[in-house]
Amino acid sequence: MLTRIVRMTFQPEKVADFLAIFRDSENKIRNMPGCQHLELWQDADMPNVYCTHSHWNSADDLNNYRRSALFGQVWPTTKALFAAPPLAFSVYPAGPDSTSTPRPTS
After folding, report:
1. Is the pLDDT of residue 100 over 60?
2. Is the pTM of this model over 0.70?
3. Does this entry carry the keyword Nucleus (predicted)?
């Protein structure tokens, strides 16, 4: 399983626009092949900062979503509302209780 976190800082006056976009698309994203989980988090100290937290069966499933028509609609309209560049990263479970195989390091 791959976990994807995307941290987004919005123009304060554009937060309501973002929330409308997210609410309109969240179930469509959840229904994308390979998406196991999607939720939205709001920063505890900065109310115009949000993170999406999603779980995908594989990196291929995430990349297929990122190449989809849905992403092509959602991301450009969301990106137009940013006050700063987003921070996105993908992670796999690690540690002794992890069911994933360790990834090679360079």
Report:
1. no
2. yes
3. no
Mean per-residue pLDDT for 9-32?
98
* Nearest residue to 23 (alpha-carbon basis) of 11, 6, 10, 40: 40
Spatial distance between the Cα atoms of 33 and 63, rounded to a whole number of angstroms = 11
Q: Would you give the DSSP letter of residue 25?
A: H
54: closest CA among 22, 18, 24, 90? 90
Contacts of 78 (CB under 8 A, 6+ apart): 8, 18, 21, 22
How many Å separate Cα 37 from the centre of its chain?
Answer: 10
In the numeric block, which tokens belong to residue 45?
């100290």
How far is 34 from 46, CA to CA, in rounded Å? 31
